[in-house]
Design goal:
Helix 4 links the parallel strand 4 (94-98) and strand 5. The protein has a single domain (20-135), classed as Rossmann fold (3-Layer(aba) Sandwich), CATH 3.40.50. It starts with 19 loop residues before the first strand and ends with a helix. The protein has helices spanning 28-40, 51-60, 77-85, 103-112, 124-135; strands spanning 20-24, 44-48, 65-69, 94-98, 116-119. It has 137 residues and is α/β, with parallel strands linked by helices. The protein is globular, with a radius of gyration of 19 Å. The chain has a five-stranded parallel beta sheet, sandwiched between helices.
């Protein structure tokens, strides 16, 4: 009696996509430098000029973390964070970067929902370390 041989089922592991980071900054040079640094570190990036544009992008595609400049035109980071944590009900980590050290302003950013605050000038090593920390990488 011949037995039928069957090949074991092969399961192909799900492709692991790089983590997607939304970078929001009105300064095109800083935005590009951050984008290049993130991509070099293996992250996928999405960029926005301000909080209003970021809201539109988030409606189209999810992200794993957000980097946002504190002071921007159109929709600043405080209003963006209030929308993100309130109306959007998002738990996505949001790192705020700023050149101000005014305690009241930094406190307002935390109260609005900032996960962490980084000071300018940004050092890519520090940015990546903080980002890995909030992402659990």
């Amino acid at each position: 009696m011949a037995s039928e041989l069957t090949a074991p089922e092969l399961t192909v592991p799900e492709t692991v996509r790089p983590k997607r980071i939304l970078s929001i900054d009105d300064d095109p040079i800083l935005r590009r430098l951050v984008q290049m640094g993130l991509q070099k570190a293996g992250y996928e990036t999405v960029v926005a000029n301000n909080g209003a544009q970021a809201r539109e992008l988030l409606a189209q595609e999810p992200v794993d973390a957000i980097l946002v400049d504190l002071m921007m035109p159109v929709m600043d980071s405080l209003r963006f964070l209030q929308w993100l944590r309130g109306e959007a009900n998002s738990k996505v980590p949001a790192l705020v970067f700023t050149s101000t050290l005014v305690p009241e302003i930094l406190g307002s950013a935390r109260q609005a929902g900032a996960t962490d605050i980084l000071t300018k000038p940004l050092r890519m090593e520090q940015l990546l370390a903080n980002l890995r920390g909030v992402l659990g990488d």
